[in-house]
Design goal:
Length: 609
């Protein structure tokens, strides 16, 4: 019982006391009135007859009834003053200090006394008495907890039963590890029986605390029970699978979140301890199979109960599912990486596809928190799979196209999750392209080399995303997606990146084509670069004028300014006739066309109606 519930009960008791006091006072008042003459009623006083003018209708006064008789208000004593919040806090602190703190301190001392007594009993009692006394003490605590359940609050009886379970576990450990009086099978059987008893008591009492105590005892058995099997992990894995299946079924049924967390933490801790001390490469497939089984059990316990109850998945269950998923992905990749050396990203890609499928099912069930978590895991898995499986040039292609697809789907369905991941993958594609540019071109082919495919992917994906953003902003000036990453800001980042990619890529591939032809540094190559940049600037300018987009026009002017600087700072001292004349003539005509466009169409943006 929480402190808040206890305070509410105290307030209800105080109100009931006031009501009973008022009822008792009213009863006494009614009894006194019944003993007075005329039943305690107030004597009626007949008024003097009114003088009725001639020709007027006399007014008839109704005779007073029992209901209309006015009784004097009984005098009530003032109720006792209600307890102030300060008094309630003081009483609550006193109950905690004198109740739970005292109980848990006493149980801890009793537990330590049992441990000390078992150590002393090694030299004082017979082998049979050494364990019998421990089991009797544990059973006695359990019995006291059962008896006290009707006379005390829940936390007291649960504390006694939890101490009894801990005593039974400690006695079993002493019989196996220290005294060697129990065989491996006997100790294992007793541990399983104590765990089953603890779970049964937890279900009977509806106590998550008892379930956690039983769980800790069950998971501690593999730590101190070391015997048959010669280090083979089959028994260990099978025991963990059976224990998790039972415990997770109980926690899912009763919706015990802390119990689920206890199972997850205990399983991860045991598996890590076993991997550090006993793992061998020949156990790789067996370990992967059982780890996958554990993950399936935890996923079912976290996602299935809420789905069966036709409600959205609980936030705590989703958090636990994400933790279990990250732990499984790390363990699974570490185990399978050496097995599938040529395809290290296949495992992560398969898990990403599985998460996408589950997210789609959750989306059909309108379980928004769950489908968001599953889609998140899917995107993360696919992105990491691309990073570990492919070279940087292929990463650029996959990241760029995937980012464009996520942005377009997010815009179409107004899904903030997919839209946000698309924006993040766009940055990942740019970072991957930068890592590609650091390395030299090795493929002896124009445009379809390591750099060229990256430029093409960025241009294709970025162009599609930019067009989708432009159309969506025209159709929906206000959107919920702007809360994740403003669409205008994303467009303003993508557009200059596309212009840079187009200018850089065209210059690089043009120069590389002449290098493959054995004409590295040819004047014609630099003239073609200037011509390409001039066409890019002119195209952007015309497009900006047609669409009335100032940003596009400014980028076009920027490209033309860059081309002009290149002509004067580089081409003028490098190009010879007639290439110099052709370059200057081409740029001059382009600038004249720019002036004509501005004089003909102007630059005033159309006003919205």
């Amino acid at each position: 019982m929480t402190d808040e519930t206890r305070r509410e009960l105290e307030a209800i008791k105080s109100e009931l006391y006031r009501l009973s006091y008022r009822v008792r006072t009213l009863e006494e008042q009614l009894t006194r009135e019944s003993r007075e003459p005329n039943g305690g009623a107030t004597p009626r006083v007949r008024p003097e007859p009114e003088t009725v003018p001639a020709g007027a209708t006399p007014r008839v006064r109704p005779e007073p009834t029992a209901e209309t008789r006015v009784r004097p208000e009984p005098s009530l004593a003032p109720p006792p003053p209600p307890a102030t919040p300060l008094d309630e806090e003081a009483q609550s602190f006193e109950r905690v200090l004198g109740g739970k703190v005292a109980l848990y301190t006493g149980l801890t001392l009793l537990f330590l006394a049992t441990a000390f007594f078992l150590g002393w009993a090694w030299t004082q009692l017979s082998p049979a008495g050494r364990l019998a006394l421990g089991y009797v003490g544990g059973a006695l605590l359990l019995g006291l907890g059962v008896v006290a359940r009707e006379r005390t609050e829940r936390w007291f009886s649960d504390g006694l039963m939890g101490a009894g379970l801990a005593t039974l576990y400690l006695t079993t450990w002493a019989g196996w590890e220290r005294y060697a009086l129990l065989s491996y099978a006997g100790a294992f059987g007793l541990t399983g029986a104590i765990t089953a008893l603890g779970v049964a008591l937890a279900l009977w009492r509806g106590s998550e605390t008892l379930a956690i105590v039983a769980t800790l005892g069950g998971f501690s058995a593999p730590v101190w029970l070391r015997g048959d099997g010669g280090g083979a992990p089959t028994n260990f894995f099978g025991y963990l699978a059976a224990l998790n299946a039972g415990m997770l079924a109980v926690s899912a049924w009763r919706e015990w979140r802390y119990h689920q967390l206890t199972c997850l933490v205990a399983t991860i801790a045991l598996l890590n301890g076993w991997a550090i001390t006993s793992y061998a490469p020949e156990y790789r497939r067996l370990t992967l199979g059982f780890v996958s089984l554990y993950y399936a059990l935890f996923s079912a316990a976290y996602l299935l109960p809420d789905a069966l109850r036709r409600r959205t998945t609980d936030a705590v269950s989703l958090a636990l599912f994400l933790v279990a998923s990250l732990a499984y992905l790390l363990a699974g990749y570490a185990l399978i990486r050496d097995e599938w050396r040529e395809y290290p990203g296949a495992f992560l890609a398969a898990m990403g596809a599985l998460y996408f499928a589950l997210g789609w099912l959750k989306a059909l069930a309108k379980d928004s928190p769950a489908d968001a978590a599953l889609f998140t895991l899917g995107v993360v898995c696919v992105a990491v799979a691309i990073a570990v499986q492919f070279q940087p040039s292929a990463q650029v292609v996959l990241y760029g196209l995937t980012a464009a697809g996520l942005i377009l789907v997010g815009l179409r369905w107004q899904t903030r999750l997919l839209y946000g991941f698309g924006a993040l993958l766009t940055l990942a594609a740019v970072a991957a392209m930068w890592s590609v540019l650091i390395e030299p071109i090795r493929a002896r082919v124009v445009l379809l080399n390591e750099h060229g495919v990256g430029w093409l992917a960025l241009l294709a994906g970025g162009g599609a995303a930019l067009y989708g953003l432009y159309r969506d902003m025209q159709a929906r000036p206000q959107s919920a997606l702007d809360g994740v990453f403003p669409r205008s800001a994303l467009a303003q980042l993508i557009a200059p990146a596309l212009v840079i990619a187009l200018a850089w890529g065209s210059a690089e591939q043009t120069l590389y084509a002449f290098e493959l032809a054995g004409r590295r540094g040819a004047p014609l190559a630099h003239m073609l670069v200037s011509l390409a940049w001039t066409l890019i600037g002119a195209g952007l300018l015309v497009g900006g004028v047609q669409a009335s987009l100032r940003g596009v026009r400014l980028m076009g002017l920027g490209m033309l300014a860059l081309t002009t600087c290149k002509l004067f700072l580089y081409d003028l001292g490098f190009l010879q006739m007639p290439y110099r004349a052709l370059s200057f003539a081409g740029l001059g005509l382009a600038l004249i066309g720019v002036a004509w466009l501005y004089s003909r169409f102007g630059t005033v943006e159309p006003r919205a109606n």
